[in-house]
Design brief:
This protein is α+β, with helices and mostly antiparallel strands. It has 26 helices and 26 strands. The strands form seven sheets. Strands 2, 3, 4, 5, 8, 18 and 19 form a seven-stranded mixed beta sheet that branches.
């Protein structure tokens, strides 16, 4: 008994000693642990994106408010708690189940049938996994979970009735995104009655809330839709290939982002700022929340596009394509056309139009927007590039101002090369200006041969050229924007296409625009470089970035203004450049000018250069037609390119010239209307004043 009492005494002594250590030595540490809380920051809300305006502050892209129901789970929220809330919410709203996947059904079956799920994996199998040395507890649980998924039968996942599927659809949305970050459960078709019912029962559904969401709205139907781009839905969230990039910037997985063109290019500007909340949590439960940073909508983007002009040009292109479609025998392969109109001094894109025939969702053929083709697709431009050839002759000192060359058919290496007019008008001596006026091929051939240090006689069975001439011509062409990226502030621009072979005949083809391929945007930059006295200006579609302004018919202050950017100056003298300008003027006004019929009597004093190029469509011979130009000649304010691929086979219908004349007439007609309404005016120095009637603000822009 003494020994027993002594043992009990020792045990009590040890217990008291241990309690003393816990309370006295480590007491403060344990107290802190009990009282310990965590501060967790999260971004909440769904701020609307910034608006997109045209150059006259007309809204192109806006946001439409929508009723929305959201759910926010905490770090300690358990699946059975979420399921309970989902069942209650399903009684109050209608939820479509069309987005449910088989994997969703499997997970839901495991949660709603816990006893049956447990029987899917035997005790022996679990013990065998637990006895495996290289498996951690988490690894074991993952393998058990995967075995359960594999053993769920098709009958199991198809056993849910409509009510259960509705609960599943809600539960599925609950599990998207991160803890403490609100997830949109439903934002389309949420009725006022549903909002009221949910609002009345919020106390019974922890984490559920009602709020206002937004949906992107594009005015103008399909006008410029391929350029404006798209925004992902809350369901799509971040593009899979860019998840890491966006999450590094603080985006949530289900955030809506611009996925193409303007919406994507200016995502950092257009995106709204979510409010930042700091949550004080204890054991995963929220004790308190504090607003760290208020949310706000995204900044507004003002485009350089004149939406009224854009719609009119689209209409013109559609009408002319439709006319030719009715004459199938003349243009069996014609299915698209492009127009780019830009300010040659600033690079501002006033209109960019692309139309092509394609099938709609119903399998019917219709004209569709293809404006992105103005900088992502390239074609043989034909004689429109001859101005660049003449400039290259000047820059390489192989051509002098006013040089006269003899135009007659040339036999080059066994191949007959001639100008388009030789058969009907005979041979002639031509100056550089005359060669541009009547679009002489031979003049350009001889210029290219000079650049290649080759003889320019008319009958040469074998021609030995300096193959470096290909690079020489292309390098000089790039000074005016041909064969290089223009720098347009949109993703996906192409360089065009350079031919790989280097033969004498192909060099001659390069000189007349029938070898390398160029985009309509490159042609517009090229003619602008000639119009503005030799400066290659970077084209752009973003004019300004402004702070959001929430009053109707108001626009916020400027945050950033896109200034003209000169990429390079063409390495020619003013007099040499003037020769090409005069040649373009003669094209529109000379007695033999190839565009005189369209522009000789135009009141805006135009300059132009037409082009026709042999091309192929699915192995069939056809022609591309182009026209570039600018006006007024002495003080250019608008430059353009028109490209009509595969326009005809035999007889040229002149659709390129018709489109060019109509779009230029329409531009100056709309300009006159705008001046009358006080929207803008131009001076002889090329200064443009834009007046925004909505708030009385004005802005002066100078192309110098």
């Amino acid at each position: 008994m003494n020994i027993l009492f002594f043992a009990v005494f020792i045990l009590f002594t040890l217990l008291i000693l241990r309690l003393g250590i816990v309370q006295i030595v480590h007491g403060n540490d344990y107290l802190k642990e009990v009282q310990r809380t965590e501060n967790v920051k999260a971004n909440n809300g769904s701020p609307p994106r910034g608006k997109i305006y045209d150059r006259y502050r007309n809204v192109i892209v806006d946001n439409v408010p929508m009723n929305a129901i959201t759910y926010t789970r905490t770090q300690s929220t358990k699946p059975d708690e979420m399921l309970k809330v989902a069942r209650k919410l399903a009684e109050l709203i209608e939820m479509k189940s069309d987005k449910i996947t088989d994997r969703d059904r499997q997970d839901f079956w495991l949660i709603t049938h816990p006893d049956e799920a447990e029987e899917l994996v035997s005790t022996d199998e679990i013990k065998k996994l637990e006895d495996t040395e290289d498996l951690t507890k988490d690894d074991v649980n993952k393998k058990i979970y995967q075995m359960q998924l594999d053993r769920i039968t098709k009958e199991n996942i198809e056993s849910f009735n409509e009510d259960e599927l509705e609960v599943l659809a809600i539960f599925r949305e609950f599990n998207t995104g991160y803890a403490l970050s609100p997830q949109i459960v439903k934002n389309e078709g949420v009725s006022t009655e549903e909002m009221a019912r949910v609002n009345e029962n919020l106390a019974k559904m922890p984490g559920v809330n009602v709020t206002t969401d937004w949906m992107r709205r594009y005015s103008g139907d399909d006008t410029l839709r391929s350029i404006l781009g798209k925004v992902s839905s809350a369901e799509q969230g971040l593009p899979s290939e860019l998840v890491n990039s966006y999450t590094a910037k603080g985006y949530a997985l289900n955030d809506r982002v611009g996925t193409s063109y303007v919406e994507s290019q200016y995502e950092d500007v257009l995106k709204g700022q979510k409010e930042e909340i700091e949550y004080i949590t204890k054991n995963g439960s929220v004790l308190e929340e504090q607003l760290v940073k208020e949310g706000h909508s995204g900044k507004d983007v003002v485009l350089t596009i004149d939406m009224k002009l854009q719609k009119e040009v689209e209409k013109i292109v559609e009408e002319e394509l439709s006319k030719q479609a009715a004459k199938y025998w003349e243009s069996p392969y014609l299915d698209r056309a492009f127009v780019v109109m830009m300010d040659p001094h600033t690079g501002e894109i006033m209109s960019m139009v692309g139309k092509k025939y394609g099938e709609n969702a119903n399998g019917q053929t219709e004209l569709q927007d293809y404006a992105l083709g103005t900088f992502t697709s390239a074609y043989e431009a034909g004689s429109a590039v001859k101005g660049a050839t003449v400039l290259t002759g000047y820059m390489t000192d192989k051509l002098n101002i006013g040089d006269v060359l003899y135009d007659a058919p040339m036999m080059i290496g066994g191949e007959l090369k001639s100008s388009w007019f030789n058969a009907s008008q005979g041979s002639k001596y031509l100056s550089d200006i005359q060669a541009l006026e009547i679009s002489s091929n031979v003049y350009m051939f001889k210029t290219a041969l000079k650049i290649a240090n080759a003889p320019t006689t008319h009958n040469q069975e074998f021609v030995d050229i300096d193959l470096e001439a290909f690079d020489t011509m292309r390098n000089h062409f790039s000074q005016v924007g041909l064969g290089v990226k223009t720098g347009i502030d949109l993703p996906g621009e192409t360089y065009g296409l350079k031919g790989l072979e280097k033969k004498p005949g192909l060099l001659l083809d390069l000189a007349i625009g029938q070898y390398d391929l160029y985009t309509p945007m490159q042609l517009a930059q090229y003619v602008s470089s000639i119009a503005n006295d030799g400066y290659r200006i970077e084209p752009h579609i973003m004019k300004e970035i402004r702070e959001p302004y929430h009053e109707k018919n108001k626009i916020g202050p400027i945050v950033y203004e896109n200034k003209p950017k000169v990429l390079n100056r063409i390495n020619v003298s003013e007099r040499e450049l003037q020769q090409v300008q005069d040649g373009f003027y003669q094209v529109a006004h000379g007695s033999r000018g190839t565009a005189r019929v369209q522009f000789r009597d135009a009141p805006y004093n135009a300059a132009a250069k037409s082009g026709t190029a042999e091309s192929f469509y699915n192995g069939k011979d056809t022609y591309n037609t182009t026209l570039i130009g600018y006006a007024p000649f002495n003080n250019p304010e608008i430059a353009y390119s028109v490209v009509v691929p595969w326009s005809h086979q035999d007889t040229d219908p002149g659709v390129n010239k018709t489109i060019a004349k109509r779009i230029m007439d329409k531009y100056f007609e709309l300009k006159k209307e705008a001046e009358k309404d006080g929207l803008f005016e131009t001076s002889v120095e090329g200064e443009v004043r834009v007046m925004d009637d909505s708030d009385g603000q004005s802005q002066t822009e100078t192309g110098e």
